[in-house]
Description:
alpha/beta; 8-stranded parallel β-barrel
Amino acid sequence: MAFTIYPAIDMLDGKCVRLLQGDYDKQTIYGDSPLDMATNFVNQGAEWIHLVDLDGAKAGRRINDKHVLDIKNNLDVKVQIGGGIRSEEDIAYYLENGVDRVILGSIAMKDPAFTKKMLEKYGNRIVIGIDAKDGYVATEGWIETSDQKAETLGKLMAEYGAEVFIFTDIATDGTLSGPNFAAVAAFAEATGKEVISSGGVSSLKDIRILKTYAERGIGGVIIGKALYTNQFTVKEALEEVKSW
């Protein structure tokens, strides 16, 4: 399985920010223009950009869509977007405007029937994002934690046709403490599908370790804070993947 690097741009009030463990009160602004940030990543060789509409995640509807389409329309790059996408209208809006993948998160747990319908209609252009806190699904921009096990929801979505998942361990997100390798690998094994790891990457070594799980279903990694705090560059991350 190919292993893909996904530089992340989290958007809040039109700016590029990072939250610590999903806490909106613990944000750091790293740029005023998502397009400029994405341009920098693409110039270093990025083939995908992972976008999160943090305003949308809280509001339950798309808000930063202008910045998403600016990136897609101005750069030669694939784009996936998550955050507040709860309706077919929003899904169709993004896909019809050229976005490559739409990520369904909270709605997958709150309305499995709707999610199943979207998977049947749009296929692998729908990615299921599952955010876990102590093994349980967190929703609404990580504001709420449910009583459903992440692996249980993952298995159900796989049965419904999901081919690609994004698995985030909230405890490690934005901490530069290293991914929860065991949790990501266990989730991939439980679903039997491709899983993109998200959260905690702090070094090129973390990427190297994750890539060793490629045969077990880990198809890539989303990297945010490590890039913004200059732990390494997108170019270095891509070179690390190619060297193994």
